[in-house]
Amino acid sequence: MKNLVKFTTVVAFMFATVAGTAREPKLNLISEGKAKSVVLTMDATSIGVQVKLMDSELNVIYTERMSEGQFSKKLNLKDLIDGVYFLTADDNLKSYSYTIVLKNNELNILETAEDVKPFFKKTNNMIFLNYLNLEKDKLSIKIFDAEGRTVFTQVVAEEMIVEKAFNFADAFPGTYTVSVKSANKTYSEEFVVN
């Protein structure tokens, strides 16, 4: 058990180090005459970054997965009608969202938001969960099997760093879903146990 706690602590420390050294994304506006564009520059993790541009009804206008390493993506918005648009950049550690308003040939960013996601790692028959719960929200952690039956449930309250290790050595083979839910967000990850 001590080895498991040590390993979990090392993984959390490595996660915090990687997250701390990653460069924050930068969004630049280019508005010259009728050329309305945004340029998103950021570092992509090994899994990559999913970039989406959506309209006010959340219809996807543009989507692309950026590969590992630093990238810069220019999105030309000159053909879009006046209105509210959402640009998101999503990787396995964080989700960034920007609210963009086009009005009278002008481009403005109204709001930016950053959301830290739980970090899941699977090794052999173990699943590790690390989550930086900055607001110390009450969290509900559940594991479901392929048929939707709850096989584990726990409520965590007032913890800033949530670290859990789940042992699936004696579990039946199949697909399991780990769900982390706070008052206003839900994250889930699927794992296959052989």
Automatic annotation (TrEMBL):
Keyword Signal appears in the UniProt entry? yes
InterPro entries according to UniProt: Secre_tail (IPR026444)
User: What are the UniProt keywords, alphabetically?
Assistant: Signal
The name this protein goes by in its record: Por secretion system C-terminal sorting domain-containing protein
- Tell me where on the tree of life, at the top rank, the source sits: Bacteria
